[in-house]
Amino acid sequence: MTIPATDAPSAPRDRSTAQWWGRLLDGIFFAILAALAWGIVVVVAHGGASMHVVQSAAKAPFSIARAAIATPQPQQYIQRTEWTTVGDQVSLRIYPTEAGRRASAGFLGSDGGWAQVLAVTPDADKPGMREQFVCHWRFAELVEPGKASWNVEPWRPVVNGASMIESRCNPGAAEEVF
User: Fold this and answer.
1) Which 3 state secondary structure label does DSSP give 92?
2) What is the pTM of this model?
3) Is residue 138 within 8 Å of residue 107, measured between CB atoms?
4) 66-75 in b/e burial notation, b at 16+ Cβ within 10 A?
5) Is residue 144 a contact partner of residue 110, using CB atoms and an 8 Å limit?
6) How far is the C-alpha of 66 from the C-alpha of 42, rounded, in Å?
């Protein structure tokens, strides 16, 4: 027996309504995300958090256009690096800039920071060194604000993230004292 189309269950209509609501919520989510991204572009274009994000509705489109046209200059996160020896072990001292400290406190830019370390000290690309750097990047300013250098060592063991945090970014032995 064939069921006429008018007697078909209403599930397709319900599914269609659910899909419509899902698309609407997705649209709202992406609109909010775009607004947040727009706000970040405006802040970055005007020199950071000290700028008043909403100065006037008339200026905003021009700020966005100027930010899109300008070639962004990468922040200088690393002032310098220097290899040193503590006892019979080598250690790389990484001296962050104020911009690096601010970015690290906001958990931003660790890849850029590590790239800058490698640009001036290519022989720092050893197992575990990047992970130690990222750990220092994320936590050094929280635990010890203004610490002169973030020190990473090639002789330290490669460990998982939890062990890295438990060891205060110094797996295998306590932090060296200079």
Assistant:
1) strand
2) 0.59
3) yes
4) ebeeeeeeeb
5) no
6) 9
The number of residues in the chain equals 178
CA distances from 144 to 83, 99, 151 (A): 22, 16, 13
Question: For residues 156 and 168, what is the distance between their CA atoms, to the nearest angstrom?
Answer: 13
Q: Quick one: pLDDT at residue 91?
A: 96
Lowest mean pLDDT among 6-20, 41-55, 116-130, 152-166: 41-55
The model's confidence at residue 54, banded by pLDDT at 50, 70 and 90, is very low
Pairing of strands 89-96, 150-152: antiparallel
